[in-house]
Amino acid sequence: MRVLLTLLLAALAAAAPLFEQSNFAPGPGGLPEGWGLWIPNEATAPEARVDTATYRSRPGSLTLIAAGATDVLGGWERTVQGIEAGQWYRLIAHYRAEKLEAERRQVVVRLDWLNADGKRAGQPDYAWRFTIEGGWKRLVHEAPAPRGAVAVKLQLMLWAARRGRVFFDDVSLEAVPAPQPRPVTIAAINFRPQNTGSAEANVKAFLEVIDRTVPPKTDIILLPEGITIVGTGKSYRDVAEPVPGPTTARLGEAARRHKAWIAAGIYERDGAGLYNTAVLVDREGRFAGKYRKVYIPREETEGGLLPGYDYPVFETDFGRLGMMICWDVQYADPARGLALRGAELVLMPIWGGNATLARARAIENHLFIATSGYNYPTHVIDPNGEILATAAADGAAAIVTVDLNRRYVDPWLGHMRARFMKELRLDVPVEPPAQE
User: Are 126 and 142 in contact (CB under 8 A)?
Assistant: First the structure.
């Protein structure tokens, strides 16, 4: 019994967080014990104090206040020892912001790793994923300690804010197991029907290519833009249909047969409106959602198509995915909007376009992008912009398995997905000036 008790106590001790604190109280000089201030420029330092009236669990939160003619920059920090290089850690911090102009960018919580000399090891890791709990945002970030790290600074900061305040509470850091790989097998179809005369014949031909080329245990199958019109000689109005409707039903049958998700571009009729739409069906053949092309080129506008107004992200059994269509790749905001909403993989049915821009969208947003096209390469791109698989022949498929849990880290810049989320400027006006 004593041995079992000893083992149990050892296990509990091993599972205890390296650091955990709420109930902040001012100490000598007004700073809580163990906490200091990160102030790169005294002239633009925020007011830092413990607020005993605003807190999440127990009285006392770490507070930063901006109220002046100049942006403030600075925050709280605390060094935690006992870090092991290669070990994964989970940072949790709660915050509540008031009257900030650009909260997503201005509230910064990060891990700044240190080596034995007290200098930076690797690059900092930024917390950006959050949930909302009782009026507080709960930030959670998991990352491995880089080579040479023996300690880490927990930093709770306010960056470039002129007004407003932020309260931090319930902060913890604990060792966690490394995440398991999250493999997803993608099959992007390269096929262009010719002289079929009908949408129904097109869909039948596409389904035959799927049956011929897609291997078992594929997770997501991607078809091109406008599968109901290419090669038919029909107009948008001729082939437009409700969504869900006949084509989603037939795609659903194929999805059930292959036990895979399927995405494809079709033309949608909704009341009097016509839309260039990407549809998604799940492994059970159920309609899972749609995306209406936001950027409609003049050729499609002249054909009567209307634009969409949203960048939806869909929860699947393997991760979060978004969809873009063709001309969307010419502009930065579709992929950016999907990334900000948490998409990990973007599916892009496309007719033709600029392949360099697709690689740029993958790099700048740190996303996997799969494309299926006619006058555009059918391929899968990783977050570094590298092409992982290509289908060059008509009737072939680009097939590859990617790991959505893989961290893509630049040795000089760090984990760019997190940096992108924290440093992206959405608060700067971009309207063109009026012409005189």
Answer: no
What is the pLDDT averaged over residues 346-375? 97
Same domain, residue pair 204 and 135:
no
Token pair of 326 as six digits: 């063709």
DSSP-derived 3-state class of residue 184: strand
If one counts the domains in the chain, the total is 2
pLDDT, residue 13, reads 44
Whether residue 328 sits in one domain with residue 267: yes
Two structure tokens written together for 158: 């306010």
State percent of the chain over pLDDT 90: 90
Residue 62 β-bridge partners? 50, 168
Q: Is residue 341 part of a domain?
A: yes
14, pLDDT greater than 70 = no
Q: Are residues 71 and 216 in the same domain?
A: no
Segment 246-281, tens digit of pLDDT = 999 999 999 999 999 999 999 999 999 999 999 999
Give the CA distances from residue 98 to residues 65, 182, 430, in Å, rounded to whole numbers and listed in that order. 10, 37, 25
- Pair 46, 64: CB distance under 8 Å: yes
Statement: residue 5 has pLDDT above 90: no
Cβ–Cβ < 8 Å for 331, 295 = yes
Question: Which residues form the domain of 248?
Answer: 183-404
Taking CB atoms within 8 Å and a gap of at least 24, the contacts of 237-243 are 237/269, 237/274, 237/304, 239/199, 239/266, 239/267, 240/267, 240/268, 240/269, 240/274, 241/199, 241/266, 241/267, 241/268, 241/269, 242/268, 242/269, 242/270, 243/268, 243/270, 243/277, 243/279, 243/287, 243/290
Residue 10's pLDDT band, with cuts at 50, 70 and 90, is very low
- The string of pLDDT tens digits covering residues 71-93 is 999 999 999 999 999 999 999 99
**N residues, the chain:** 436
The CATH number of whichever domain residue 291 belongs to comes to 3.60.110.10
Regarding whether 383 and 235 lie in a shared domain, the answer is yes
